[in-house]
Design a protein that fits this description.
The strands form three sheets. The chain has a seven-stranded mixed beta sheet with strand order 8-7-9-10-11-13-14, sandwiched between helices. It has a five-stranded parallel beta sheet with strand order 2-1-3-4-5. The protein folds into two domains: about 230 residues, Response regulator (Rossmann fold, 3-Layer(aba) Sandwich); about 150 residues, Response regulator (Rossmann fold). It has 14 helices and 15 strands. Helix 3 crosses helix 13 and helix 8 packs across helix 9. It is globular and about 70 Å long. The chain is α/β, with parallel strands linked by helices and about 425 residues long. The longest helix has 19 residues. About 35% of the residues lie in helices and about 20% in strands. Belongs to the leucine-binding protein family.
């Protein structure tokens, strides 16, 4: 499990705290066309059912986890408009688990056992309690967001970022997962950063993630400034003043989106200028101007890191395809693009099975062979291995973008060449 998985897991826990106190070319016809000239009709013309489980109405908020679902649905709608898979439409069955374990189990029962979907796609569940049932049914879960440890625990689950863990029912290796220091290495090597601040709440999940960030920064030789605020009455002005005093180059955080906006506003008011206010893929969205409307200077120091191509990189053909198909959406996000990539992944798997029959087993076999899958260049090459021992180091590449008011999210270099061999640090999920 990499740092991106950990970020999503801890961020979800931190977000829950808020309850107690947000023109391109057309798709190539060859991608979607069913050409039946001179060929016999398909053996089975019944629709292919796929399921999408999303914590759409979770306590975190109505739009927090819907991006992957929206991207996947957009892909399947486009696919069906061009003939489906071997002449078969993809019928999407959606289920909102409400962000609870009970609701998640109900969704798994409905989709896997009642609807008999051939696969789950782009799962984004706050509490993936039904994961063991999915694994026991041998249903491939393709391109899910690893919020929690399920994708590093169970077979037949294939997270969007891959996994090196054994996946035999225990998280990671004997209950421990590992993440790298590539993000910290990047800012040190590429931007000369030496001092990094980590801001957290005085709450267990937030503080635990902050400690892991601190460990990674120290492993990369940073001077680390720790800032903790009271969750109920956070004094971000004091934090901002200290960031200025300490001369922080970077700011990382273990706080929710609302807290980040408040922190940025306080930084602007205090004149605390930094090289980068670093966020993650979940906050890599087109809503930055509104989210940080009171902090224009801090807003323009926002950087995001991830494992997929910037959704604003319309110079890339695969991104243009995604943007053309989703132009009707009010906002865009990196998670939408990753949901689109997950749907394409299922489509490639199902297409490989067309001659012999599109079954759960055949699709799962394709996924097990998915070494280096990129969804036409939208993802960094994804690996699924079952290493008997955790790696001490790993070569990891990064997709990096920074926000600029006049341009939006601007890619920083080639994600396939922004790579580092970094230590892997253990943690308990």
């Amino acid at each position: 499990m990499g740092r991106r998985s950990l970020v999503a897991e801890i961020l979800a826990a931190v977000l829950l705290l808020s309850l107690s106190a947000a023109c391109g070319s057309r798709l190539p016809e060859s991608d979607f066309r069913h050409d039946d000239r001179g060929t016999p009709p398909p053996r089975d013309s019944a629709p292919l059912r796929v399921g999408i489980i999303t914590s759409a109405t979770s306590p975190v908020g109505g739009s927090a986890f819907t991006g992957p679902r929206d991207g996947a649905v957009a892909f399947f709608e486009r696919l069906n408009a061009h003939g489906g898979i071997d002449g078969r439409r993809v019928e999407v069955r959606r289920c909102d688990d409400g962000g609870s374990g009970v609701g998640n189990n109900e969704c798994v029962h409905k989709l896997v056992e009642e609807d008999e979907v051939v696969a789950l796609v782009a799962t984004t569940a706050l509490d993936y309690a039904g994961a063991p049932r999915v694994a026991r049914a041998h249903v491939p879960d393709i391109g899910g967001q690893p919020i929690g440890a399920a994708y590093d625990t169970y077979p037949h689950l294939y997270g969007i970022y891959g996994s090196l863990a054994p996946r035999h029912g225990t998280p990671g290796w004997d209950g421990r997962l590992y993440g790298g220091t590539e993000v910290y290495r990047y800012f040190k090597r590429e931007h000369g950063a030496r001092t990094a601040a980590v801001v957290s709440y005085n709450q267990s999940a937030s503080a635990a993630y902050a400690r892991l960030v601190e460990r990674g920064l120290r492993a990369e030789g940073y001077k680390v400034v720790t800032e903790q605020v009271d969750f109920a009455l956070p004094n971000f002005r004091a934090v901002a003043a200290d960031l200025k005093e300490q001369g922080a180059d970077l700011v990382f955080d273990a706080i929710d989106a609302h807290g980040n906006a408040q922190l940025c506003r306080a930084m602007d008011e205090a004149g605390a200028d930094v090289t980068a206010k670093v966020t993650n893929v979940q906050n890599w969205t087109s809503t930055v101007t509104d989210d940080y409307k009171d902090a224009p200077r801090c807003r323009n120091t926002l950087w995001a890191t991830g494992a997929s191509r910037n959704f604003e990189d319309t110079g890339d053909a695969a991104v243009r395809e995604f943007r053309e198909a989703t132009k009707g959406l009010k906002t865009h996000s990196q998670w939408q693009l990753e949901g689109w990539a997950a749907a394409r992944w299922f489509t490639d798997a199902a297409a490989s099975c067309a001659a012999t029959g599109i079954t759960r087993a055949c699709v799962d076999l394709y996924m097990n062979r998915s070494q280096g899958y990129t969804a036409r260049g939208l993802l960094l090459p994804v690996r699924f291995e079952r290493l008997p021992e955790p790696p001490r180091t790993n070569r990891t590449c990064l997709s990096v973008a920074r926000w600029q008011d006049d341009k939006g999210w601007v890619s920083q270099g080639d994600m396939n060449r922004t790579c580092f061999t970094v230590p892997q640090l253990a943690y308990t999920p």
